[in-house]
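Exercise 7. Given the components listed, write out the predicted structure of the assembled complex. Treat all entries as one system.
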Amino acid sequence: MSSTTTITKAPKTRPPAAPINILDNDTAKLYTHIHPILVLSLYAFQFKSIVADPVPALLRTLIPLSVLQIAYVAICLPPTGSNATPVAPPKPGQKKKPVPGKLESGIQGKIIPAFLSLLLSTLAATPVLTITLILFGAPIATHHAHTLLCAAHISLLATLPLIYVHGVEGEKWREIVALLLPIDEVYGAMIGAVLGAWLGAVPIPLDWDREWQKWPVTIVTGAYTGFAVGKLVGGTLLKGKKISFE
Amino acid sequence: MRGRTILLTVANLLIPVAILVFATGFFPYKPFIPGLAEYEEIGNYAYKFGKAPDAPFNKLVFMVVDALRSDFVFGEHSGFRFTQSLIRSGTAIPFTAHATSPTITMPRVKAITTGSIPSFLDVILNFAESDTTSTLATQDTWLAQLKAMEGGKLVMYGDDTWLKLFPDFFERADGTSSFFVSDFTEVDDNVTRHVPEELLNSDWNAMIMHYLGLDHIGHKAGPNSPNMLPKQIEMDGIVQQIYEAIENEEHLSRTLFVLAGDHGMNDGGNHGGSAPGETSPALVFMSPKLKQITEGTDGYRCPTTPKADFDYYTKIEQSDIAPTLAGLLGFPVPRNNLGVFIPEFLHFWADGSDRIQLLLRNAKQILTIVKATFPAHNFKDKVQEMNCEGSLSSGEELSCKWQNVVQALETAAALHPKMRMDIIYSFCRTAQDIMSSTTSNYNVSRLILGTALAFLSFTLTMLSIRSKLSSISSTGIFYTLILLLYGILMFASSYVEEEQHFWYWSASAWFAYLFIAESRKEWFSKWVFHPAVMLLIVTRTLRRWNQTGQKHAGAPDIAHSTFLLHPLVLWSLVGAVYLDITIRLSRHIARSVMDPKKSREEKGYAELESGEGDRFVGMLAVFPLGATAFVFKLGFTAKDAPELVKGVNGGLFYWVGDLGLVGVARMVFVGLALSASWLVISEWRRTKMVKKGKESGGDLAVALFDLLSLFLITQTRAQNIPVYLLFRMQIFFLTLLNLTPTQITITTLLLTQTSFFALGNSNAISSIDLSNSYNGISGYNISAVGLLVFMSNWAGPVYWAIVGVLLLSGHPSSTPLYRDRYFDEQEIKEEVKDWVKEEREHLNEMLEKEVQRGREKGKKGDWEEHVALLTLWMGAGLGAVMCACTVLRTHLFIWTVFSPKFLFAMAWGVAYHLGVSVGLGGGIWWVGGW
Ligand SMILES: [Zn+2]
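Answer.
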């Protein structure tokens, strides 16, 4: 069994995966709800120009989207390696640890990982998602820029926060791909964005002759919608639940 | 257990019943009036008529050019220069004759000759019945009327459809058949060579010609083919030859010359559906005598531009040809006619009363059909009070219009003839509209009953697997979701047209699901080469093989790429497919000839693997079959698509030419049948010798599948044959996945559907491939042709239905020949090569496990559940299609999109599901258990 690794080994070396909790401060708690609204507003605001001319508009939109996503992970999420996920739930009445308030540690501990996540999600996740899109039926001979940008958007939405909270450890990503992690708002947003992108393909063949039916508008729309829905549901209703295939 | 089986059996039996009930309501049997029409007493009105008006013509030359679209004659770039000059000079009158769907030759000839409007049911009847009901021998047509005239004699040259429809009608005839669409010249030369002598003969009163070459050019290379213009010029030359003979020969002086297309073609050169191009054939009436009726008018400009797509000049219905010929040649309008006399030609009669009489006879003939269709309504021939206000039903509207006719005729006052004619026209046109739309003719209660029966089948199947339903699994959720979505999408016309997208979309998701499901159990370190990912890649390649549907019909794809169509590439790939199957078959034969008793005596146990000598015998026995099949494909393609065999040695065709393709195809079929019988008999003998449970039946099942795939390949066009290599790869990767029986069933379902579309099919009648329907058949044997048409269009689904059974019983990988065969085959795929080497050990390991699992599989319960899930899908899918057809029966696209879909659903439900999936699949399953 040289070439396969059974994931059953994993729990021995690591504690069982727990859902990601957002940082325990008021800004984080507030911004995590504002964030999807901002992302959706950004998309709604750009929608017309994306429909009119997808490539430049999608490219332009990537910048504010990155800013929003970086702000989101920096404000709301515990970066990978930090033990923000409490090992034991705090007892009632126990005094909370003071949040590191220094600006310096904020940059050190958050902004840099956030930018690293941006870099990785652009450089590593986007090509993989582009190929996935083509395997799922994206045009193979034409529209390359469209597909690439579509993948970039999905990647920023779905993988940037995941990289931020889980890092790039192979074992972790196997669990992520195999849907073995417990659901939280980051994981939910990823699943939502991917499912949304997949469902976004449904209206394309319809004969409504609308401009927005063109590639890849519906896919990107599906991803944004799925992101918001998945984030909401993952952070609330389904939080901590594990996906069962049986 | 027994209860489940009974429920499932009943559910399956309900499927054909539901289809039949629904079909009889959807394609209602139209009232058909037998016998030849005769001039009858016109009736006693206040308005008085003279005797029947004299006819301006006594002879007819009817020249059909198959697929002659309107712009081919009237457009700017037409080759019909002479015809155009006649139109300009006023000795020819042009029309666009609207052809209703299905735009294929046989129903169109029916419409032209009887004046009726054949429905989709006629298409089925034409296929399903060989007896007299599908011929027009007993029907009233203008051919029958002309033959019945004094000294009436008919001659016919061209498409033998006419000879099939009108057996023993013609004094002289020479039929040509359109076996090979690559034949552009011979089919037409066979007609043209008879023209000069027939123009000198004075014994006939109607000559019919039907040229096929132009249609063949369309099918082969589309309307813009470089061969198109020369062909038009050739046809124009024949028009000129005939027209000049009419001008110069005394016995032809009163001859009417009609040039007509039976249907048009779409931009791809195909037809069958109802795109504007397909429904707009050209129609030109020609005679020097026409000058007298065009003189007073503005005349026609030609060439000209269409008003809308392909809509040139006045648009008439194709059925209008029959009553117009009746008036112009002086015979009664055929009884089942729904056409209306073309107004332009009324100018032949100066007297208003003659014109009215002509129209009234037309109207009264239509009235007989109207009365038969609406027996409850009042169509009395006298003036009466009627309530014609408000919204009227079809029957009421017609009865009011008829009352108007009666009133106009009973008014003795000096009414302008034009007014009376307008009223009669109004009745005729309304009747034509209502009777041809058939909206009024649906039997809604049968539609509902049929739909309900389909859902009953669905419910019974649900009951049969109710124990399974209680446990919710992700596989079950996937199945349910796509079933629901499929049902909903059947109501969207664009998704019916583009159904392939749904299946590709679901199949990709399914393989992604399998990837995740497998990854949860065991992480495959080289995940890029995970079998499920490889399946995604292969499926994506298949998706690109043929572009189908409406929107992207002509888009670039692999099957039409210059790379694949390079003879060397194409035939290497095709050769690889044949070689692979031949080697497989040789091993099956080798197994069958070895003597298990002997090996047991020698080695002390029954050897299941065959030895060197046996293999040699096997190869020797099978090689001729494989080679003949390959040569047949080469020879067939040389006729069907010569450009694909350029550079192939001519000597190879020498003996094909001697034996004829029919003979070679028969050799292949007989060889397949002999091999199958031999394998079955030897296997049966073996099971007596070797103890049962040695999975010997599994080998027979695989052997029969390999024989079946050779048959399917024989029925597949050359440029699609390499797809079978991809199918092989899919099977290989599937065997590497640890699939549960339910997952195998879902995979089967998805792959049967994707393979159907990947091989170039769609839900459009025009996409049906008829090129392989006459393999090995020399005459016209309807059931054999039907079987071959089905097998060549459903080759992919038939293949995968049986693969599903083999996967389910765990056979494909449990046969030892699989293990060592696969890796040779993989060498074809370069990029996989390295990986194969690296992963070889691991795969072998997995295969070992798979073999183990295979032995555990194959329980009877699995088969029942497999059938149940497929029946469930079929019941729900059929129910959805029927429900859509019922709800949307007044929809604009009902005849263009939804009813073709229903025809396809019929084939899926009866021929595929019952015949192949349950019938043939059940047989293979049973054999596998020997
Ligand atoms: Zn044709």
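Discussion: Residues B 67, 215, 219, 271 surround zinc ion (CB under 6 Å). Confidence is low (pLDDT under 50) at residues 127-132, 603-607, 812-831 of chain B.
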